[in-house]
Amino acid sequence: MGYLRRMESEPRVFPPRPIRGVRARYARQAGCPSDFADVTVDFEPWEEGFAFEAADSADVTEGSCREQLPGFHAALAAGMREELADQGDGFAVAVAVVLRSVRVHDVDSHDRSFHMAGRLAVREALAQAYGPPPLPKHRA
């Protein structure tokens, strides 16, 4: 069950207010290569739909991965869209996401890492906006 499915029947708009400085770090050590992505984003109320951009002033901490950044950005945005879609009906998305900083690792950063970081960033923003997700109901 998504964060917003527990809301009353009137549609909510995400985000209800600016949610800035959301950090999502996806790091998994399961062998070589592992997974690593670390981003900080702002969620701003916007027109209906989803918009993503990297700020001109975005802080980029990277090694030799600069040519891969556009692919990482696309994977990050795709993960965000996917997580928002998984929330189901009951809310409208009207958000501009602004990438403020990104950290990558020469070996362990790849599209999958950034896709997962995008999902985590949306979960964190939803928790900041609406509180923690509902607990699963106990079946007797």
From TrEMBL:
SUPFAM superfamilies: Ribosomal protein S5 domain 2-like. It holds the Pfam family EFG_IV. The lineage of its organism: Bacteria, Bacillati, Actinomycetota, Actinomycetes, Kitasatosporales. InterPro entries: Ribosomal_Su5_D2-typ_SF, Ribsml_uS5_D2-typ_fold_subgr, Transl_elong_EFG/EF2_IV. Residues 12-130 form the Translation elongation factor EFG/EF2 domain. This is Translation elongation factor EFG/EF2 domain-containing protein. It comes from the Bacteria. It comes from Kitasatospora cystarginea. Keywords: GTP-binding, Nucleotide-binding. The keyword GTP-binding applies.
